[in-house]
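2024-03-11 09:14:02 INFO worker-7 job=invfold-0412 stage=load source=structure_tokens
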């Protein structure tokens, strides 16, 4: 039976402080922008991986611990609806609950492989029919409430665009899980290089390792701040299972320091004066860098070969025509006399 979780349940959740290990984020001090994301990746990568399904400890078992109903320890709380259901009824021939990949597993085509496909920082219990309705929709603001056969969910969708908006109580949770995935998985060791983009792709069936929409996710992050539920969940994952943490729960400010330029919030960080857009792009890409001097732009492929080069002469805005380049990820290195910046670019 599905039970709507009362608001008081959240209020009664044990008020604990996140137990961040001493020194865990020391190496991130002083960094912002892409540099901060790279340092955080070094901190949280290499976590202990668990199987999706197994006779031993697997994702099912971990979610029963991380998403336990604090008013009924036999139940788990479902992400998009807030319903409390019997934890032991895992799939149960479609009558139980299932495991939602918040970063849709088709967005990078990693399936349920160990690592991105089993990372419980971005997996949550979900009602089976609600999960089916969400499918692999992009996260963005929409206005049609999704009514499941069992009742209102508080989540929204669009009948004209491939979009999904989680209920207000977990909008920030979802954003921080997406931020985590884009930071943890950088294309190393055969893992996907996950990227958050700020546009809705025209191809909803793309298998590219991208998710959207960045500005909406940042706004949800601000609208629904971290609470004790998330902090406790982060601690359980770190201390009992994966031995890594979601930095955006421990330090919510990191999200703005990395991606805050997209919300046009002033004085976010010293690297926010550099913009590369659109990203992903087809062939035309613009670099905006508020430099008072000339700078050189080099586009490098995955093998480190320079495949495009251009000089900007005392011009803060420079357009590049990359139509001769193949689809895929590139590194854009932008160098002035005083400093060097690097951005990733996806051509699709």
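2024-03-11 09:14:09 INFO worker-7 stage=emit residues=348
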């Amino acid at each position: 039976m599905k039970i709507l979780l009362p608001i008081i349940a959240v209020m009664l959740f044990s008020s604990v402080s996140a137990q961040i290990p001493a020194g865990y984020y020391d190496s991130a001090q002083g960094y912002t922008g892409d540099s901060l994301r790279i340092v955080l990746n070094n901190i949280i990568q290499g976590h202990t991986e668990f199987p999706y399904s197994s006779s031993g400890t697997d994702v099912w078992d971990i979610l029963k611990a991380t998403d336990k109903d604090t008013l009924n320890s036999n139940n788990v709380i479902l992400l998009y609806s807030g319903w409390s259901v019997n934890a032991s009824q895992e799939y149960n021939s479609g009558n139980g609950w299932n495991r939602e990949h918040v970063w849709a597993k088709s967005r990078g085509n990693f399936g349920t492989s160990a690592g991105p496909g089993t990372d419980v920082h971005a997996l949550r219990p979900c009602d089976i029919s609600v999960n089916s309705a969400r499918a692999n929709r992009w996260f963005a603001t929409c206005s049609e409430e999704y009514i499941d056969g069992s009742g209102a969910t508080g989540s929204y969708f669009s009948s004209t665009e491939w979009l999904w908006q989680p209920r207000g109580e977990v909008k920030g949770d979802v954003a921080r899980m997406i931020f985590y995935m884009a930071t943890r998985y950088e294309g190393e060791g055969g893992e996907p290089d996950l990227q958050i983009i700020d546009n809705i792709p025209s191809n909803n069936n793309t298998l590219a390792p991208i998710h959207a929409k960045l500005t909406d996710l940042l706004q949800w992050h601000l609208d629904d701040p971290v609470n004790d539920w998330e902090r406790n969940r982060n601690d359980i994952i770190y201390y009992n299972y994966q031995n890594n943490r979601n930095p955006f729960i421990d330090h919510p400010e990191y999200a703005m320091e990395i991606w805050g330029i997209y919300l046009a919030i002033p004085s976010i960080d010293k690297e926010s004066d550099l913009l590369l857009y659109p990203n992903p792009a087809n062939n035309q890409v613009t670099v905006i860098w508020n430099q008072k001097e000339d700078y050189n732009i080099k586009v490098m492929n995955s093998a480190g070969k320079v495949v495009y080069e251009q000089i900007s002469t005392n011009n803060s805005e420079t357009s590049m025509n990359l139509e001769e380049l193949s689809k895929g990820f590139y590194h854009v290195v932008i160098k002035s006399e005083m400093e060097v910046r690097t951005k990733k670019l996806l051509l699709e």
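2024-03-11 09:14:09 INFO worker-7 stage=report msg="DSSP finds nine helices and 19 strands in the chain."
2024-03-11 09:14:10 INFO worker-7 job finished
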